[in-house]
Amino acid sequence: MSDNGQRTQRGIKRVWNARKNDISSTHRNSLILEPGPGHFEEHDPFLLLAEDWFGRGSFDVHPHRGIETVTYVMEGRLEHYDNKSGGKDELLAGDAQWMTAGRGVIHKEDPAEGETVHSLQLWVNLPSGEKMTEPRYQNLRAANMPVREEPGAKIRIFSGESGGVKTPTVNVVPVTMVEFRLEPGVTVKQDLPGGYNGFFFVLEGEGRFGREGVKGTERQALMLGPGEEGLPSEVTITADTPLRALLYAGQPLREPIAARGPFVMNTEEQIRQAYQDYRDGKFV
Ligand code: CO
Question: Is 60 exceeded by the pLDDT of residue 68?
Fold first, then answer.
């Protein structure tokens, strides 16, 4: 990607509000990206994005196959148990875990005793040829995360790159995940391959996004308009107040989807097989 070449300026095609739902007295949730079939093509390769505020015991042990989950802990301490790494791990505020479920993991994510965790969990689809890949965990620690710094701007890079600053995060499907913290009046640009789909989620404050400077405020999501496949593109962000926003963007797979519960495959037969394998203890 050339820095002096022409880049398509991305617009914003849709803005929507995330709404909080009470699931129980200790669990509130909002679905920012919904897994419904009508939406999927727009945000392919992403399947869903959920924001959760939860106490200990909200989620039980459960399996996954055919996807990656990217869990970003914004507040609290989240304990993580799984059947692959053979033990317990802990994510602190600012950390993220990139879990490639591949052919199958069984895990549990539980706040530490007495803690309420505020997290975002993204599901990234895996391409048909990689759905049964070997499971893998990458802990992205806040202390080690690459940061792009410009006057009035701090951009944390979970995956992909920003302004030439890269992460070592390993992707199956190429994904750019960055968090912007901007002071009022500051403008930054984020480069993206033209074929990526993507969206912003505003965590705090208010800003203007994309070619037309579309306003986005706390708890709103903004879907990027298209770039041109094979050509570089970029998107502009301007803070009107102190602004904290996440950008998720990735290369679409354009493959058939069969999804049920924690399994996302290409056909119904593969979903039946996933349940069969789980019952037969083949996820261990
Ligand atoms: Co899970």
Answer: yes
